[in-house]
Specification:
Blueprint: E1 7-8, H1 14-20, E2 25-26, H2 29-35, H3 41-46, E3 57-62, E4 65-73, E5 79-86, H4 94-110, E6 115-120, H5 126-132, E7 136-146, E8 159-160, H6 166-176, H7 179-184, E9 195-199, E10 202-211, E11 216-222, H8 230-240, E12 249-254, H9 260-264, E13 270-281, H10 318-329
Parallel strand pairs: 5-6, 11-12
Antiparallel strand pairs: 1-3, 2-5, 3-4, 4-5, 6-13, 7-12, 7-13, 8-9, 9-10, 10-11
Helix pairs in contact: 4-5
Length: 334
Amino acid sequence: MSGCEARPITPLDLGLVRRLIAQRLPLDVACALARGLPGLEGVLLSSVPLADLGAPTVVMRNDGGGLVGQVRQRPGRGVARMTFLAPEPQAAHLSCWMQIIEALVVEAGKRGAMLVSAEVPEDHAVFAAFRQTGFAVYSRQTILRREPGRAAGDPALLRPETETDAIAISSLHANTVPRLLQQAEPLPEPDHSGLIYEKDGHIAAYLLIIEGKNGVVIKPYFHPEVYDQTAAVILAALAHIPRTEQVPVFLYARAYQDWLRGVLEQAGFKPWTEHALLVKHTLARVERLEPVTVPGLEASRLRPPVINRPFTRWSRPKSLVGRWSHGRHNGNHR
């Protein structure tokens, strides 16, 4: 496939895409675990010429086969997330996947994304392709899994989030999540599906809940002061969500939350898979010299006074001249 180039899809590519996406590698793990891998809806919209719709999808054709990748961005957000590569990348085609990845970054940049992220297993062959195209590891994460079943928790311990919680949740997020990770994964737009744990009248924990037909995903944000209540809060969340009795529950533990892994074993969670959160900025920092003016030296500022008459040789004030002359005539000059 070395002679082919990655390009945005057209309606003529839809048949190829339909065949390839049956063997996808998901790169937006939370969405895939909860709602399943994305279908052709976004692909169909993005194939419409001259329309900024759907999810940008890039294809590379060769000898009846090909490669496909997709990136998704919410309107008005500066962060885009890669959703899948198809078919699942193999080490033999890394140079081709690098072209696909670069093309997806370009498409996201055209839509205003300032950075693009992807969740990739570090032991996967395509990890090297991401690194060689300029993606950096912003965080590592362990996803824990709990089998469907009833939880012995107290749902009254938590309450659903409301519109008035937005500022307090943002403050908790800003004070507990590393700054670098905040850029790569800001809090989503409030949809009031999260759960709140309060202590002494303040929000001490926030659980972002993503529900879908395939499972429930929890992304937790805990204040360090509630370490001892973590297991009780998670069990309360499981009891608060009825679907946890029918579908598996997946919980994110970022690298800075490594302490969660031991605590959550009390709630029936077990390590399931590990990923690296990879990020690439679409904008490059360019340094250049800018002229700087000093206000006191600007020509348009204050100017020295100008006498409104022709310049004459300097003469001493009359009072001094007269006093000096008077002294000479009186014989006081030595």
